[in-house]
Design brief:
The structure is a homodimer. Chain A is about 40% helix and about 15% strand. Chain A is an alpha/beta fold and about 400 residues long. In chain A, strands 2-8-7-6-5-3-4 form a 7-stranded mixed β-sheet, sandwiched between helices. In chain A, β11 (about 365-370) and β12 form a beta hairpin. The longest helix of chain A is centred in the middle third of the chain and has 18 residues, at about 185-205. In chain A, about 55% of the residues are buried. The model of chain A has no long low-confidence stretch (mean pLDDT about 95). The interface between A and B is large, with 89 and 89 residues.
Chain lengths: ~400, ~400
Amino acid sequence: MPIAEQVKNALSSSSMIRRMFEEGIQLKKIHGADNVFDFSLGNPDIDPPKTFHDVFVKLAQEDERGSHGYMPNAGYQYVREILAKKVSREQNVNIDGSHIVMAAGAAGGLNTVFRTICNPGDEIIVTRPFFMEYRAYAANMNAKLVEVDALENFNPDINAIANALSEKTAAVLINSPNNPTGKIYPSSVLDALSSLLTEHGKKTGRFPYLVSDEPYRDIAYTCDVPPVLSCYSESIVVSSYSKSLSLPGERIGYIAVSPLISDRDDLVNGLIYCTRVLGFVNAPALMQRIVASLTEERVDVSIYARRREAFIKILNEAGIEYINPEGAFYLFCKAPAKRKGRNEKRVNEIDDKAFTEHLKKFLILGVPGSSFGKPGWLRFAYCVDEKIISASGNAFKTAMENW
Amino acid sequence: MPIAEQVKNALSSSSMIRRMFEEGIQLKKIHGADNVFDFSLGNPDIDPPKTFHDVFVKLAQEDERGSHGYMPNAGYQYVREILAKKVSREQNVNIDGSHIVMAAGAAGGLNTVFRTICNPGDEIIVTRPFFMEYRAYAANMNAKLVEVDALENFNPDINAIANALSEKTAAVLINSPNNPTGKIYPSSVLDALSSLLTEHGKKTGRFPYLVSDEPYRDIAYTCDVPPVLSCYSESIVVSSYSKSLSLPGERIGYIAVSPLISDRDDLVNGLIYCTRVLGFVNAPALMQRIVASLTEERVDVSIYARRREAFIKILNEAGIEYINPEGAFYLFCKAPAKRKGRNEKRVNEIDDKAFTEHLKKFLILGVPGSSFGKPGWLRFAYCVDEKIISASGNAFKTAMENW
């Protein structure tokens, strides 16, 4: 029987990131894992910190009675309290457990937030390029993702957001450090956003939420990631341990709300209710207990920093332009123009999809910028072994020579 | 700022089961855990089998590289293959891994199924009484739950379902062993349902899916639970390890589709896509690997059988009528009529909510039948320590004397 129309349509334009990831698995079977340069998926290859392993073994050995059972839908109260302290430090606020709802990763948290705050037909404004899953999350709630272009330096364009605001705006969604650009939004940008949304709220009576998707907060090279919760009263942070502890398959994260947020009881109760009825019920029990023991821990970011350098060197040598990433583990690159013939000058035919396909012939997997709303660019994830990165140098060079 | 209207409305009529569970936690703090007879939530108190612990410790000690990372959204391929064998045996079919999608528990699986098969405005038929969360799951997809009464013996009423079928019917949803009645639907009922849906499909061109929610399949006392997948081509089973391995907090389950199902590629790809974009991304990685090692395992059902006997004895002595449960771990009871005065005859004022409140004074927590679409009844979950069940005898008697 035919499935839902919206889902059927989505299947035909399914995630290029995931398609590349699954193609990569196939290519590795054929050519051997070391010979495929798979920079498609943000699937961290760094091990979780040693302390993760210790806590994991300890909890397994204890295997306390009832520890795999239900707890309140918001999560274990003691876990919420511990995370509130961590978030308070990071976000320069003073919140307690009642401001935290445990979530099944950031993807689960974002769906929960959108379900809680969006009436059908509401709008969520996002800056392009962006993680394309947001579009599907909004569609789940019959909300509309309103996409506005970033500035040339890939910071949000406050004027463009101002023009996009309407009485239907439920939220502005930001993501810093950014996927795919690696940009960290400076506090000046957050302040400007806060002023804009406050002014809009005063004018219309509806203060849009500022929803900050922050799974990469701990992966920062050039500066600390400025706080959001202390910057605007109606702000909500969604985060996860997928990157900071390398646990993306375990689906563990949280939602944190500003201490100044209005209608807080309704909002938090709504988040808890939506966690339940969207089918998450609660964030996985064991992982809640593990991350509560590891609030001071994170993966060794210096490894990503070294990889970033190694990858940049290769791109420089191959003559591919990129944005220097301040955080996360992506290099967002300009798809180079194609040469008409082997010795001709490059012409202005920038096609990120064609270039991605071209790279695949050399067993290099990236994701076209079109998949982030930014044609003409492409993304490489460098959360892979340095030896894969180094070994890709020749493939990149040959690919460029043949483009 | 105001949250979504639908969510705000839902908050005011929030889950009585969950409210009772959370009230129970408070009452236990005041009166001590042993003095509160908390039969509110289906939160299994039996430990997972010893083999669970062994596999858990083994996987923690090995903590294989990359084992907490992403895998394909459908789950690990080897886990899907193993579960396909288990489901093939249980459902009397021959399916492989491509018929299985790993899910974040049955609640996650049901949301995924409904999102995949329902266009907005579509209808899902369910037999009353039923697990009230279904209503919220349907609402998530803008589908409508069409509720029809069960027969007096609590089997589905095939005629009532026939009358409820329309061209908008996306699915008929069944749940056997049933929550709250403990009923196991006999194969004669499944056959009748299959004939009805086949006939309806031939007439209208739309064959409704038969969605079977089966988290209690392994908790059966009187007979094996008849298979569904071999009974009707357009059938989908959703199950979990919340009850069979006592892991409700870990959110691990799966979706299995009939080998004869039409448009299978679209359906399974749709299920995988919806697993991803609803924010589950994938079922928790570690638990996938654990349950794949435990397909022959289940909790010791004889413990539930003993508790069932103990609880029935208490209800008999207190003079409370009930349906003899064939599976699951619930006793569905008639709310007794109230006496006007201490020595007067009981009068016909049956109020399940008032009786539930009355029981709470004696520290007995149950859930009113109204919360399952069946006023005049109430549900007790007996997945609690036998000593709590035995100790509740006096409280039940006193409560009845004072009703």
